[in-house]
Amino acid sequence: MASEMSCENTQILAKFHFQDPTEIEIEIKVKPTPDPQVSPYGVPSVEKNGATNPITVRIPLSHSFTFLLSPLSTAPHSNFLLSPLSTAPHSNFLHFSPRTHFTFLHFSPRTKMENAQIPVGTHLYDLPEQLLLRIFSFIEPTRARNSASLVCRRWRDLERRTRSSLSLRGNVITNPYHPHPFPRFPSVSSLDLSNLSPWGRVPSNTPLLVGPTLPNSFPAVTDLTLYSRDPTVLIALTHHWPRLKRVKLVRWHNRPSGADIGSDLGPLFENCTEIEEVDLSEFYCWTEDVAEAVRSHALVARNITGLDLMLANATDGFRTSELISISEACPNLRRLIAPCAFNPRCIDFINDATLLRIATNCTHLTTLHLVDTTPVTLNNNPGAANNLQENNPSTITRTGLETLFSSLPLLTDFSLDLSHPIFEAGPALEVLGQRCTNLIQNLKLGNFEGVCKGIWLHLNGVAICGGLKSLCLKRCCDVSDSSLVTIGRGCTRLEKFELIECHLVTELGIQKLAKKFEKRLRQTKRQTLKDLTVSQCALISAPALVKALEPLRDQLQRLQFDCIWTELDPKMKKALEEGFLLWPYKIWLELSELSLWLPAGEFLSPLIEAGLDDCPNLSSITIKVEGNCLTKPGPHNFGINALSLFPDLSKMKLDLGEAIGYAFSAPPFQTDLSAWEKFYLLGIEELPSLQELDYWPPQDRDLNRRTLSMVAAGLIRMSDSLRNLFIHGTTYEHIMWNFLDILSLRDAQLRQDYYPAPEDNTSTEMRDESCARFELKLNNIWQPY
């Protein structure tokens, strides 16, 4: 059949020959008009002498095709190019030479029409509604979703109907959509309400978002994160979502005085009978509350498969009777994380028999994390015999570990962090590796001896676990350089490795381990070690560590170490001052996250001199400072402007929460914390790409205050690229108003996420009206883009 189609300035003659049931032959002749005119698409047509140019092409009949016809040159008898186009948005508007005219032809094998029509102005809107919803469901980045929702009203509705997770911020008293009702998100299954302000407090009147508004707007929620200062919050919300599967509770305030044992969790188990996972890692309560709540709701507890009981600021761990009662009430547990009392000087401490009872009651456990929260108690004589480590063994023995590993055949993630040492633990780890060779993937060992002896060439200890992907060795006093070499030969799939307080390890062992993984990368073409942490190792300095890790610079994506600087060689120091380096030029191409620990008063500028000056893809950095800030800082600043060498650095966490000083009036010859905030923040305006800042102000422990000063607010205000600002502390209202001068700022929050959170509700920094006024003013500022 043949079909002639015309489009103002161009005539197209198309002949379709169905000679084969699976193939079609198309012959197309294009005859442009002789006079140059402007086409309907705004592109000048081609000047021709009426010549026709036949085109023949064969295509399969399995798909619908859209073709582009364009001349290959501007000659009078030039050939036309027929090429398939993608269905991407705005693919209709392709740019060629200024004198080129193009015409679209759309053909579908299912429609054999005598007179085909050329679609004009085809848009993404022409797709069916279900297909558009399917396309929007694949958008994962939050920023991309937020941008898509601003295109038009239809895209906004499509984005709301397909969003699966959402974190709400702002004030619970005001409705940001007034006078319109709160929008509906029918597909949101994960909802985070822990960042709603005022932080941890419910006003006297019933707030809008805590009533029936949220359940009506989010009917499909199965995963809920909530700040629960007292049981009234759970009572007001949980009965609206009876089918919750996972709940995370957050609370940094003190437990309500006079509350009954288990009352904090009672409403959760009473209203949500299908709950499967409970996360209390950031929830301050007593261990007795958890055990009593689980015992009192035995039918609900049988459905629970995950318990994260790492209570906020937990100093007293779970005892034997409590852990056994929890394991008996939750026989289907697959994930258990809990702080425990392993100290034999405590009553009802955890021992081998306790671990065996847990394994017997919960045979399906795949993740088991137990952390000792009780510190080692020593007498006044450090050299006494009863203070030596070998005279204070742990209550967990090698035999107990072997029995535990034999009783849990599905174990994939195991963590045991103790304050007292376990002697000769290597054979127990070999049992774990032999029984679960390819099953065990994550392992964290704290205060283990004999983890890997590194003798001769045979593998032993943890090196038997060849399927490990994550390994953390903490306070393993006999781990040496030879141990790292053996681990590198045995754990060939290792992707994450942490080395904390291992004082026999030197930079030579780190270098040998790095060369092992570099050789494996060349042989297998597969990156393995991507995440490395080396912290509090006495024999390793930061410059030596960076130099030892050079073989891994093409595969490391995350690096964490302590900034313990050593004096540079005089020749190297002179070369740096003159502007050139003595070592070869190195690029850390894959490094995207960097985490640093510094003692109070240490400088950041030597980081560049150590060899980390070229990290083109570094996007996130975490800086944690600890120490005494009671004296005055030095005359020079911290050197945060040195980070301007990283062009893609967009996120920074500056944690001064463990820097101790005076919040207000300081004694003579000493200074308050505002001078130290100036020391650390000076130069932050020189980071051109910084968009998100998490800042923990230094604290005064005597007053339990972590307050942002006026000096710090003024320095942060100078950063004109910030979009998100999170202050993990308190401040005054007039100080927060400084942030309104940042034109690009979209979100600014105060988070009192430290224990115990301030209880003073009368000062200007804690009033609900102050937070509401600032948030309203921030939301009403005109945004340039």
From TrEMBL:
| Residue ranges that the Swiss-Prot or TrEMBL entry lists as coiled coil | none
- Residue limits of the F-box domain? 121-168
Signal peptide (UniProt feature, chain positions): none
Q: Which Pfam families match?
A: F-box_5 (PF18511)
Q: Supply the InterPro entries for this chain.
A: COI1_F-box, F-box-like_dom_sf, F-box_dom, Leu-rich_rpt_Cys-con_subtyp, LRR_dom_sf
- What GO terms fall under cellular component here? nucleus; SCF ubiquitin ligase complex
Q: What is one GO biological process annotated to this record?
A: SCF-dependent proteasomal ubiquitin-dependent protein catabolic process
PANTHER family named among the record's database cross-references: F-BOX PROTEIN MAX2, PARTNER OF PAIRED, ISOFORM B-RELATED
The name of this protein is: F-box domain-containing protein
